[in-house]
Write a structure and sequence with these properties.
With 213 residues, the chain is α/β, with parallel strands linked by helices. The protein has one domain: Uracil-DNA glycosylase-like domain (Uracil-DNA Glycosylase, subunit E, 3-Layer(aba) Sandwich). 39% of the residues lie in helices and 12% in strands. A four-stranded parallel β-sheet has the order 2-1-5-6. Strands 3-4 form a two-stranded antiparallel ribbon. The radius of gyration is 16 Å and the shape is globular.
Length: 213
């Protein structure tokens, strides 16, 4: 277990509502990432959303826009959700880490993986989102999101696309790849296979919500 001197828990509002959480998150200093990101990128979506998606962290586009999943990976997610009949506007979308961690490469800002300490420091925001939204199913997009909830030993490649139950949570979970991984596929065949696998996993989520699973 990661020991923390401070975390997002020190910045939570007295009353947990989505507007209050979003406002309070803007002043979060629970880890050092607030010094890197342009702003906190909090989750978006309706109260009582049945589907709750968690990614790793905001990317460059999200950091500039202040919105989760609005860049290239977000467009891939939107396309896949549309294909399986899930209304993106009816889902809640957030990240395990709310600030963009990056490294400079000339004029570009390149993604850097959050540490276990940074993920743990940010987790109180995520837990508060769970309490307020009360989702029916949580979809974990990629290893960082999955391990944030299910532990460092969890492997998406082993358990993806399955409805998982864990005594620590009041809702089932489903793990799949992060949509950004589809963009990194080396060739057309690999991209097609990655896309098919991602859509197949999301069909399980759609089926669960509709009662077909």
């Amino acid at each position: 277990m990661v020991k923390l001197e401070r975390s997002a828990a020190d910045f939570l509002p007295a009353k947990l509502t989505l507007p209050a959480l979003r406002a309070a998150s803007k002043g979060c200093r629970g880890c050092e990432l607030y010094k890197r990101g342009t702003e906190t990128v909090f989750g978006r979506g309706p109260l009582r959303a049945q589907l709750f998606f968690i990614g790793e962290q905001p990317g460059d586009h999200e950091d500039q826009a202040g919105e989760a999943f609005v860049g290239p990976a977000g467009k891939m997610l939107d396309k896949a959700l549309a294909e399986v009949g899930i209304d993106r506007s009816a889902a809640y979308v957030t990240n395990a880490v709310k600030h963009f961690k990056w490294e400079p490469r000339g004029k570009r800002r390149l993604h850097a993986k959050p540490t276990a300490r940074e993920v743990a420091a940010c987790k109180p925001w995520l837990e508060s989102e769970f309490k307020v939204v009360q989702p029916r199913l949580v979809v974990l997009l990629g290893a960082t999101a999955a391990q944030a909830l299910l532990g460092a030993s969890f492997r998406v490649t082993v358990s993806r696309g399955k409805i998982l139950n864990d005594d620590r949570y009041r809702f089932p979970l489903l793990a799949t790849v992060h949509p950004s991984s589809l963009l990194r596929a080396p060739d057309e065949k690999a991209r097609a296979e990655a896309w098919e696998g991602f859509v197949r996993d999301l069909k399980v989520a759609a089926g669960f919500i509709s009662g077909a699973a």
